[in-house]
Design brief:
Elements lengths: L1 E2 L12 E2 L10 E2 L5 E5 L1 E3 L2 E8 L2 E7 L6 E2 L1 H6 L4 E8 L5 E14 L2 E10 L5 H9 L3 E3 L1 H4 L3 E5 L4 E5 L13 E2 L1 E2 L6 E9 L2 E9 L8 E4 L9 E8 L3 E2 L2 E2 L3 E13 L2 E11 L5 E2 L7 E6 L4 E6 L15 E6 L2 E7 L13 E5 L2 E2 L5 H5 L2 E2 L4 E7 L6 E7 L5
Parallel strand pairs: 7-12, 8-11, 18-25, 19-24
Antiparallel strand pairs: 1-32, 2-9, 3-11, 4-14, 5-6, 6-7, 8-12, 9-10, 10-11, 13-14, 13-26, 15-27, 16-17, 17-18, 17-23, 19-25, 20-23, 21-22, 23-24, 26-27, 28-29, 30-31, 30-33, 33-34
């Protein structure tokens, strides 16, 4: 099965905060020593864990690229006071005001975090609707985790949060140094892109809230010497803190070699982002046990046995989709030959005979359609209202 949305990113607050907010790195953990194994649920690629607030259990997204965030529902239930309202810029470059609060206490299976700053989801925003689809009421972000060690084991679907590296890794384990962002301690690791003898090293955000492809390259960091540009288009096929993005320039790329902590991925298909920094997404966790030592700024990686990376070389569909007014629409067109048949914004009425017209936002977001090399789209033309059937294939680079 292939999800309709090949690239949806819930980057609520992996954002650039203006200097009017001093820092999000406040709050403490009640316990001095702790080691907790937390089983997680995976929903369309996102990591979801249970938390307890004021004796009530909620589900939160675990997002290393974000800060703590809560829903309007929790904000109102706890009658929290807004401590600051600032203009926050999400990964699309969109900026809107966001309210920040201090959450008195949140418990992750026996680890108690106190007085942590966090943001409040915008009520009725597309991002808030997406949170409802996932059944979550908040986000666990890196500002909460900045004094801990966090280990991800995708094979066991387990996260370990601990205060001491000796409790989760053997002595003398190999690591690479990481950098933590000033505002929210989001982790940045070094990766290398290679094409023949050419090599470029980048510091990229390690973002478990990015459920798209393995790697997303910032247009600011584009270097033609180590990547191959396969296609260029304008459109929108992702979501940020302030909703679905406006039409933007996107590139489809092939990276001959992407090296992450000595693991080499070959012929990686990637897309670009308008964000200032590139991102390594949650898909990376499929390839090995991954540990972030926020305290000592270290990144550990133990590859799983017999990993397969063939899917990283798969080309996307010739078009990608978005949601507007609770309708699935054409969001981007990679294949220029289709531009005479398809327009950005054409409403998708059905795919391979599966009727989409009565589906709401969440049904469309969670939709799985069996992937075939050939797909028949029934579309309503945005300009003429004409109903048309168009066959699309997997994109093939010239």
């Amino acid at each position: 099965m292939k999800r309709i949305f090949t690239f949806l990113v819930l980057l609520f607050f992996a954002c650039s905060l203006q200097a009017q907010f001093t820092t999000l790195n406040q709050g403490k953990i009640k316990q001095k020593k702790y080691l907790q194994e937390i089983s997680y649920q995976e929903i369309v690629g996102y990591i979801i864990i249970p938390v307890t607030i004021n004796g009530k259990v909620y589900k939160f997204l675990f997002d290393t690229g974000a800060t703590l965030a809560i829903s309007d529902k929790i904000y109102k239930e706890l009658n929290l006071k807004v401590i600051r309202q600032i203009n926050a810029v999400d990964a699309s470059g969109e900026g809107k005001p966001i309210s920040f609060i201090l959450l008195p206490e949140i418990d992750i299976q026996g680890i108690t975090f106190r007085n942590t700053p966090g943001a409040v989801f915008h009520e009725n925003s597309d991002a808030s609707k997406l949170a409802e689809c996932l059944g979550i009421d908040g986000i666990i972000g890196s500002n909460m985790l900045r004094n801990s060690l966090v280990q991800f084991d995708a094979q066991k679907k387990q996260i370990i949060i601990a205060n001491d590296i000796k409790n989760i890794l053997p002595p003398n384990s190999k690591y690479q140094k990481i950098k933590l962002s000033f505002w929210q301690k989001a982790p940045f690791i070094n990766i290398t892109m290679q094409k023949g003898v050419q090599k470029v090293e980048n510091s990229v955000l390690f973002d478990t809230g990015d459920n798209g492809r393995l790697f997303t390259l910032s247009l600011n960091e584009l270097n033609d010497s180590v990547v191959e540009v396969l296609a260029e288009s304008e459109g929108s096929f992702s979501i940020g803190a302030h909703g679905f993005y406006n039409k933007q320039r996107h590139l489809l790329l092939r990276i001959p070699e992407l090296v992450v902590n000595r693991l080499i991925f070959t012929d990686v298909i990637a897309t670009t982002t308008q964000d200032k920094k590139s991102r390594l997404g949650v898909k990376f966790l499929q390839y090995g046990k991954t540990t972030l030592d926020y305290k000592k700024k270290r990144f550990y990686f133990e590859p799983f046995d017999n990993i397969k990376t063939d899917e990283l070389s798969e080309m996307p569909r010739a078009v990608d989709f978005n949601v507007q007014n609770n309708k699935l629409v054409v969001g981007i067109i990679w294949d220029k030959q289709l531009e005479s048949k398809i327009n950005l914004g054409d409403v998708v009425l059905s795919i391979n005979g599966v009727d989409l017209q009565s589906m709401g936002f969440c049904e469309l977001f969670m939709l799985d359609i069996p992937y075939r090399e050939e797909q028949i789209l029934e579309l309503r033309d945005i300009n003429t209202g004409e109903i048309k059937n168009v066959e699309i294939l997997r994109f093939l680079a010239n």
